[in-house]
Write a structure and sequence with these properties.
The complex is a heterodimer of chains A (169) and B (313). By secondary structure, chain A is mostly helical. Chain A has one domain (5-161): Arp2/3 complex 21 kDa subunit ARPC3 (Orthogonal Bundle). Chain A has helices at residues 5-22, 35-47, 49-64, 73-87, 99-121, 130-157, 164-167. By secondary structure, chain B is of the alpha+beta class. Helix content of chain B is 35%, strand content 26%. Chain B has helices at residues 6-31, 36-70, 72-110, 216-221, 288-292; strands spanning 120-128, 136-139, 152-155, 158-167, 170-175, 182-187, 193-199, 202-210, 227-230, 243-252, 258-265, 274-278. In chain B, strands 1-2-5-4-3-12 form a 6-stranded antiparallel beta barrel. Chain B is globular, with a radius of gyration of 23 Å. The chains are: A mainly alpha (169), B alpha+beta (313). Chains A and B meet through helix 1, helix 3, helix 4 and helix 6 of A and helix 1 and helix 2 of B.
Chain lengths: 169, 313
């Protein structure tokens, strides 16, 4: 885990800057994607649940600092989502061209569910609407479209001669 | 000696992170941006602002192009509606000229404060909201220009929103269309006042009136198209007289006790590129000395003179 930090920190910064500086101008279907979530899912898929958990929490927390919603909401939903993906047995997920998009879509939906559920419990009134569900659905589709690029970037950053199983934990 | 297995350690970490997140959510809700997390947020905004501004210049036109593709059908409909609206507006301009001269006389008569007499700072919208659950914009001026949290923000069409965060080099404005936004308003024709607030799932505001305080004639007089402005009453966070929006519908609740007036804000987020921040503390009356010392920045223009163009989303 420690040896991953020098690669994951620049990756997290790049992802966050792209999310808050560039993507507000590149809305699709009227929504923004969750680049941090995609990167966290990609890290979890490649390195396992613990690196995904830490990466998702850190990126989500930093992203929360830019938002009006309570700080910690994105951190929690990214972390849980990455942990779930990282915990899946690799045998259950067959490699294929559509795997990143599938994980992006599924991750976006799970993250949206956690975000809305915890947000409602925390008393964020605007999350209790059909519009909120619609936003999460559209955002998950946008995530699915961008997932191959983000998975590619994460693969590039974490590329190593060591076998993947040795990088886990 | 007890040793944690890999799966136990994972679960322990997951529990730790969930608890840390819930603690942050609770702290943030209680501190309301004034606690340590709020300070960290302002520092992060300050660091990211130059990058965000530069990226907005580069990618703004790309965003317009993407929006043009995905919103093509809606744009055609909007264009058709705008043509009709232009014709109606041309007719109204003639009436407005006459009304303006009358208005001047009334203002002199009643000594109503001119909104333009409040010190203002002109600012440019550098980017839109960075999240899906807030209607906000980032401005290119902040504490260095005297902008503080709570200051009202106006645009060419009227009320834009309220400053909710400010740092050196930028500030964040919660738009009038956000579900958490609230403002005390007055129905211009009827003189009825009350608190209007945002609604989840829609960009309209909701004005909740008690039917006990209104006569039947007053209720019936509220019709779609009635104009709404800030009233500046009840320690309002906004000075009086800022146009807010139009009435789109009225609904009497089944209990018959209250009447819901739905308001469509004048704010057009898509074309919002320049705004004016009013250096006016919430709850204060408009002080006489402020009316005499307008301290607008050199490049600022009157709100009604601002030329707006398409600006991303």
């Amino acid at each position: 885990m420690r040896h991953l930090a020098p690669r994951l920190v620049p990756l997290a910064i790049t992802i966050l800057v792209t999310q808050v500086a560039i993507f507000p101008n590149l809305r699709l279907f009227g929504v923004l994607p969750d680049l941090g979530l995609l990167a966290a899912v990609a890290v979890a898929y490649r390195e396992g649940p613990v690196p995904g958990l830490w990466f998702g929490f850190t990126v989500g927390f930093t992203y929360d600092l830019f938002l009006h919603t309570p700080t910690g909401l994105s951190a929690l939903s990214y972390a849980i989502c990455a942990y779930l993906v990282g915990s899946l047995e690799r045998g259950l997920l067959r490699r294929g061209r559509w795997l990143p998009s599938f994980l992006g879509l599924a991750g976006g939906l799970v993250e949206g569910f956690v975000f809305l559920s915890v947000g409602l419990i925390a008393g964020v009134g605007e999350l209790a609407s059909v519009r909120a569900l619609s936003i999460e659905g559209r955002s998950a589709v946008y995530d699915a479209i961008l997932a191959p690029a983000v998975f590619g970037l994460v693969g590039l950053v974490l590329r190593s001669d060591e076998p993947a199983w040795r990088l886990r934990d | 000696m007890v040793r944690f297995g890999t799966s136990s350690r994972r679960r322990y970490l997951l529990t730790l992170i969930v608890l840390a997140s819930i603690t942050m959510i609770t702290l943030d809700e209680r501190a309301d941006d004034k606690g340590p997390l709020g300070i960290v947020g302002r520092v992060v905004h300050r660091v990211a602002e130059p990058i965000s501004g530069a990226a907005s210049n580069i990618f703004g036109s790309v965003g317009d192009w993407v929006s043009g593709i995905t919103d093509g059908g809606a744009l055609r409909d909007q264009n058709r509606e705008l043509r009709v609206a232009v014709q109606e507006l041309q007719a109204k301009v003639r009436d407005a000229d006459r009304a303006n001269s009358e208005n001047e006389k009334f203002r002199e008569l009643f000594g109503l404060p001119w909104l333009d007499d409040i010190p203002t700072v002109a600012a440019v919208v550098t980017s839109g909201s960075v999240g899906n659950y807030e209607e906000s914009v980032i401005l290119n001026k902040g504490t260095e220009a005297g902008i503080s949290v709570g200051f009202p923000v106006v645009g060419p069409s009227g009320l834009v929103g309220r400053v909710i965060d400010s740092w050196t080099g930028g500030s964040k404005v919660l738009l009038v269309s956000d579900p958490t936004f609230g403002v005390t308003v007055r129905l211009l024709d009827q003189g009825i006042t009350g608190p209007a607030e945002g609604q989840s799932g829609t960009k309209t505001l909701k004005l909740n009136l008690s039917s006990a305080d209104l006569t039947v004639e007053q209720v019936e007089a509220i019709v779609a198209g009635d104009r709404i402005e800030t009233c500046g009453c009840f320690d309002s966070e906004f000075p009086p007289g800022i146009p807010v929006g139009d009435v789109v519908a009225t609904e009497r609740q089944t209990s018959g006790i209250s009447i819901i007036v739905k308001i469509r804000p004048y704010l057009d987020r898509a074309s919002l590129s320049h705004v004016k921040v009013l250096l006016w503390d919430p709850g204060d009356a408009v002080p006489a000395e402020l009316r005499a010392t307008t301290t607008t920045t050199p490049q600022s223009t009157s709100v009604t003179d601002i030329t707006v163009g398409p600006y991303g989303r």
